[in-house]
Amino acid sequence: MARVVEASAVARRCVADITAERAKCSFPQHEVTAVLDGGEDKTQQRRKIEELFLSDPEFLDAVRPEYLSHEDRYANELRKACHMIGKFNNDEEIQQLVGQMEGIRTLMGSGLGVALTKDGNPLALHFVMFLPAIMGQGTVEQQGEWMGRAWTGEIIGTYAQTELGHGTFLRGLETTATYDPASQEFVLHSPTITATKWWPGGLGKTASHAVVMAQLYTQGQCHGPHPFIVQLRHQDTHCSLPGESHAGEIGPRLGMNTNDNGFLRFTHHRIPRTHLLMKHSQVLEDGTYIKPHNNKLAYGTMVFVRVAICFDAYRQLQRAVTIATRYSAVRRQSELVPGQPEPQILEYQTQQYKLLPLIATVFGIHFSARSVWDTYNEVTGSMQEGNLDRLPELHALSCGLKALSSSDAAGGVETCRLACGGHGYLASSNLPRIYTTTTAAITYEGENTVLWLQVARYLIKSYREACKGHTLRQSVSYLTPQPASSSASPSNLSNHALVKAFRRAVSHLVAEAAARLQKGCDAGMIFEHAWNSCSVQLARCAQVHTRYFTCEKFLSGVERAEVSEATRGVLTRLCRLYLVFHITNNQGDFLRSGALSPQDMSALEGELAALLAALRPDAVPLVDAFDIHDRILDSTLGCWDGNVYHRMVEEAEKSPLNQKDVPDAYHKYLRPLMKANL
Ligand SMILES: CCCCCCCCCCCCCCCCCCCCCC(=O)SCCNC(=O)CCNC(=O)[C@H](O)C(C)(C)COP(=O)(O)OP(=O)(O)OC[C@H]1O[C@@H](n2cnc3c(N)ncnc32)[C@H](O)[C@@H]1OP(=O)(O)O
Ligand SMILES: Cc1cc2nc3c(=O)[nH]c(=O)nc-3n(C[C@H](O)[C@H](O)[C@H](O)COP(=O)(O)OP(=O)(O)OC[C@H]3O[C@@H](n4cnc5c(N)ncnc54)[C@H](O)[C@@H]3O)c2cc1C
């Protein structure tokens, strides 16, 4: 890690401030790093991989991407993404470190991979969706045909589902794939302008192939959206296939501008029958349709990606809160006590309130994403054996955690930007780019409100089952109708008691929403209208339920961690802060359900202040324990050595506008104006 510090009084002061923070550390940092990495051996492995990639000059950028044209930015990131694969394919040491096949995907999606390609990796969709779609939706023969070529990069794919007219409502897709038994081909067609595929990452110029979701028609009947493998570009020339399909890029976005998100239209484009991914449903040569065991199996790729997004949200928030916390230790502003030296802004309780809960959130997402990932593997494992029983639970869990982690992370990154004052608005802080990347996850892979409503659907269904006396799945087993009972006594505000209070609050909210829904139906509304009229409340149930889930996973994760008492101490304080922060921020849910009393709330608010003070000395040591390399942070404000101001000035000097004292634009535009009256 670069720890070179320019010797000036200001630099010395900044370094002294951040060094003093490190001296306050109350726990062995390597233990926290290992908890997050999944073991000390994994930490060593990650560092070695980072070293191998970061020491490679090919990954250096000649200039900041913001100064490049749209096309040059794309080319620069594509260059690095391809070099990453080339390096992986040709280096046995790297392959051993990251693992042969899955490794390249993990590498691309890791903190390192995301940092090396700065504003969106043009190959992301290939690894995150195209390959998983073939794995999850293709037969063994289809996997044999496509996977090898896709892993090595001989073909590059994307996942083309969303259209101009429909993203959320998958059943509303307009692209058709009509089976023609005479030629044993499917004919792909975009019947209207709104049927144009729109948004898929890498579709613009990078992908040679796509998994296209289209309405399957055979023997005159529509069977809903199904996945098809479609070649888009010529294998040798990369030219679009003339006449039948037309792809391009959709133009600049808020962020992720080097992902070449694209559009695609089909004009009676023919593909072989065997290009329908047929693991779950098949079309036979004569056009007979064989149904899947569950018609939502075609949505399986999205379930995987929703889980993957939770890990990405975790990493993005980690980066942002590291930047803002280190900066807050170096930045001095105003006076706490008149006449006394300006304090580090981290001394202000309000600043601690911005940052410390976000540090806790990193751990909250970490423990719950691990848990959902385990559930994903268990459920998909039992699905291989034909058992689909837990699919609805997995769907609800992955929707809930994707929505919660992406909104927590995007909101958290924005809080970090604000916590850095004006300087957080500078591109060189890296906070703007982290924000625009993170906020996209609120929309893609299922817009969050829509996902909350899917969770609510599961909750209400489960609650109704519970009312009939049926046993529920583990993640919702607490949803039994409960009589309003007396609140927990102030002496019982242990962590477990607070988690229990969450359970009671959610049960109460769900019971209320279910009753309101029923009332609407009883008053003569059709179910769907009654549902819509309660949907604000329903989304709220889903949010509080998912928060409860993260609290529970955080607490059990800390209790189970194999660490020293000092480390368990700091993690327990963080977990406590997470619980108290979310309860005090949502008091109404707990008060009206009787889960907690106004006196409890007062006690918890007092405790919140004490927790901020107790965690304040460990703020910088905790973000240091995230162990993020300076190159991965890529921030003038967050660098390890704290030498913020010199770095900012150095970066500003590099602006192309500063390469000439008087820019050409002055002579062209400003001078004629300024001299007009002379
Ligand atoms: C160790 C860690 C390792 C980790 C690995 C490492 C990997 C590397 C990591 C990489 C880092 C990442 C970085 C990212 C980079 C950028 C990527 C950008 C990608 C962006 C791609 C996209 O953006 S791509 C398009 C996504 N576009 C949607 O996301 C549409 C949403 N829209 C719907 O998804 C449906 O439209 C919607 C609403 C369900 C209604 O669907 P619908 O109308 O058909 O259904 P209904 O509402 O009628 O019914 C509902 C009934 O369906 C059941 N159900 C519904 N879905 C189900 C399902 N999936 N599975 C099972 N069951 C399901 C449900 O449980 C109900 O069941 P029930 O009836 O029993 O209650
Ligand atoms: C950066 C980025 C990358 C993407 N990459 C891909 C990709 O690789 N492949 C791909 O296929 N797609 C991709 N997408 C598309 C993405 O999946 C969709 O934009 C997303 O699913 C939301 O759908 P929509 O745009 O139709 O939003 P809309 O559904 O039109 O949402 C607009 C508003 O309507 C509300 N709304 C809609 N339906 C309901 C409902 N039933 N109940 C309540 N409220 C509702 C939403 O909450 C939202 O507030 C990408 C999008 C982005 C931004």
UniProtKB/TrEMBL annotation:
GO molecular function: acyl-CoA oxidase activity; FAD binding; fatty acid binding
Annotated Acyl-CoA oxidase C-alpha1 domain residues: 299-460
Catalytic-site annotation from UniProt: E445
Record GO biological process: fatty acid beta-oxidation using acyl-CoA oxidase; lipid homeostasis
Entries under InterPro entries matching the protein: ACOX_C_alpha1, Acyl-CoA_ox_N, Acyl-CoA_Oxase/DH_mid-dom_sf, Acyl-CoA_oxidase, Acyl-CoA_oxidase_C, AcylCo_DH-like_C, AcylCoA_DH/ox_N_sf, AcylCoA_DH/oxidase_NM_dom_sf
Pathway info: Lipid metabolism; peroxisomal fatty acid beta-oxidation
Family per record: Belongs to the acyl-CoA oxidase family.
UniProt xrefs under PANTHER family: ELECTRON TRANSPORT OXIDOREDUCTASE, PEROXISOMAL ACYL-COENZYME A OXIDASE 1
Keyword Iron-sulfur: no
One GO CC term, this protein: peroxisome
Binding site for FAD: T162, G201
Cellular localisation: Peroxisome
Acyl-CoA oxidase C-terminal domain boundaries: 497-675
Required cofactor names: FAD
Keywords: FAD, Fatty acid metabolism, Flavoprotein, Lipid metabolism, Oxidoreductase, Peroxisome
Pfam family, one: ACOX_C_alpha1
Keyword Flavoprotein: yes
Domain Acyl-coenzyme A oxidase N-terminal: 30-156
Listed name of the protein: Acyl-coenzyme A oxidase
